[in-house]
Amino acid sequence: MRLADGTLVQLDVFALEPRFTARADLLAELGVIADHHPMGEVLACNAPAESVIPGVWLAGNVTDLGAQVIGAAVDGARAAIGINSELLQEDVQGAVDRRRRRP
Q1: Tell me, what's the pLDDT at 48?
Q2: Pairing outcome for strands 40-43 and 34-37
Q3: How many of the other CB atoms lie within 10 Å of CB of 86?
Q4: Per-residue pLDDT for 100 more than 70?
Q5: Given CB 3.0 to 4.6 Å as the disulfide criterion, which of 4, 20, 49, 67 pairs with 61?
Q6: Which fold has domain 21-101?
Q7: Of the candidates 75, 23, 33, 77, the residue with the CA atom closest to the CA atom of residue 53
Q8: Chain centroid to CA 19: how far?
């Protein structure tokens, strides 16, 4: 390995700790800010998959740097369930409000 000062060091093994950064520039524009984590940066997320910005949902390794494909798929399913639940609640509330306005 060549060090910054040019010194060459012979090694049998070299271990490097990777750092991960969520590719979330679009989400930053919406106000979702990355949190520092020992392995890199992640996006703040409430369970299940709802971001700190209402109406913005997150899934996969933007919230869990160690997420594998199956975990990311589970997060996606949780986000879908949360989105569906939120939309259903809005529909029910709208129906209740309309019913209450009737004479």
Answers
A1: 65
A2: antiparallel
A3: 14
A4: yes
A5: 67
A6: FAD/NAD(P)-binding domain (3.50.50)
A7: 33
A8: 16
Question: What are the sequence ranges of the domains in the chain?
Answer: 21-101
- Nearest Cα to Cα of residue 72 among 85, 60, 89: 60
Strands (E), the chain: 20-21, 34-37, 40-43, 45-46, 50-51
Tokens at 9, concatenated:
């060091």
Q: How is the beta sheet containing 34-37 ordered, strand by strand?
A: 20-21, 40-43, 34-37
Tell me, what amino acid is at 101? Answer: R
Instruction: Tell me the C-alpha to C-alpha distance, in Å, between residue 3 and each of 6, 8, 9, 17, 18.
Output: 5, 6, 8, 17, 18
Predicted local distance difference test score (pLDDT) of residue 31:
85
Is there a contact between 40 and 20 (Cβ–Cβ < 8 Å)? yes
Cβ distance 77 to 85 under 8 Å? no
SS3 at position 8: strand
pTM above 0.85, yes or no: no
